[in-house]
UniProtKB/TrEMBL annotation:
Transmembrane segments: none
Pfam families membership: TetR_N
GO terms, molecular function: DNA-binding transcription factor activity; transcription cis-regulatory region binding
Cited InterPro entries: Homeodomain-like_sf, HTH-type_TetR-like_transc_reg, HTH_TetR, Tet_transcr_reg_TetR-rel_C_sf
Protein known as: Unannotated protein
Annotated ranges, domain HTH tetR-type: 15-75
Lineage: unclassified sequences, metagenomes, ecological metagenomes
Originating species: freshwater metagenome
Keywords: DNA-binding, Transcription, Transcription regulation
């Protein structure tokens, strides 16, 4: 005997609609930019009604606001989890250094240039939009706190120098990773080996290897 499937609860339907719309908006932001984004294109692509879209997002600006926050969060959340799981479980100095350098090098890979560009694009889009700027600050602070926690752990274990605050180190690492976009723009592509060597030399000054 066939069973009749219950329709999703109102909250489930709402979450599904929001998710569908945000994915479509983020895709268009990344492909063609904010200036080319129109409500009609999103309605056509998603099949969502205009009434539903305006109910959830208010207007075009509200739609962009929500998409930018979701977009920025997606760039940070996976990195944050990788850092915590890869470093807060380290039991030796060598393991900590190897994992930190490995994850940092991974975040600077050539195939991540789109993420770097879109992260900076999202930040620049918040200028003149106080609400969006504040929301991005909250997401960024969460990410910085996760990196800071890693360096606090390293300091507690005696692997990271303590005359520099863990927060300053967390900001430094992010700046180092984002600066890779200048390499992306350079006509004379730097050799990966040279870039990694410079990075390792820079990082060496923050570590305090255990003495025999």
């Amino acid at each position: 005997m066939a069973t009749t499937q219950k329709p999703p609860a109102p909250q489930q339907r709402s979450e599904s609609t929001v998710d569908i719309v945000l994915k479509a908006v983020i895709r268009r932001l990344e492909d063609s930019g904010e200036s080319q984004l129109t409500i009609d294109d999103i309605l056509l692509e998603t099949g969502v009604s205009k009434g539903s879209l305006y109910y959830h997002f208010g207007d075009r600006e509200g739609l962009i606001y929500a998409a930018r926050i979701a977009q920025y969060s997606s760039y940070l959340e996976s990195d944050s989890e990788e850092l915590r799981s890869g470093l807060l479980t380290c039991t030796t100095f060598d393991q900590f250094v190897e994992n930190l350098l490995g994850l940092t090098i991974l975040s600077m890979q050539k195939n991540d240039r789109k993420i770097r560009a879109m992260r900076l694009n999202t930040i620049s889009s918040a200028y003149g939009r106080p609400d969006l700027w504040y929301a991005l600050q909250e997401k960024q602070n969460q990410y910085t706190n996760a990196i800071t926690e890693v360096f606090e752990y390293g300091q507690k274990m005696g692997w990271v120098r303590t005359d520099i605050t863990a927060h300053a180190l967390g900001i430094f690492v992010q700046g180092h990773a984002l600066s890779r976009i200048l390499v992306d723009l350079d006509h004379n592509e730097i050799e990966a080996e040279s870039w990694v060597k410079v990075m390792k030399l820079t990082f060496d000054v923050i570590f305090t290897p255990p003495t025999e």
